[in-house]
Specification:
This protein is mostly beta strands. The chain has a domain of 35 residues. The chain contains no helices and 3 strands. A 3-stranded antiparallel beta sheet has the order 1-2-3, with no helix packed on it. The two termini are 15 Å apart.
Length: 53
């Protein structure tokens, strides 16, 4: 497994559309980075043992 990296977006938005405490959240994103872009929806599941980058 490779190392995780972080990149700062140069423009765009992230919108949360649903949130359930200690369960999950959903949203949409449309962001631009210096090396490309990302657009779409996401569903993130809560992970009690997770770590922030």
């Amino acid at each position: 497994m490779g190392c995780a990296t972080e990149s700062r977006a140069v423009s765009g938005s992230v919108t949360l559309t649903a949130y359930s405490a200690a369960t999950s959240l959903d949203g949409t994103l449309d962001v631009t980075f210096s090396t490309g872009s990302a657009k779409g929806t996401f569903h993130a599941v809560y992970c009690a043992a997770g770590n922030e980058l």
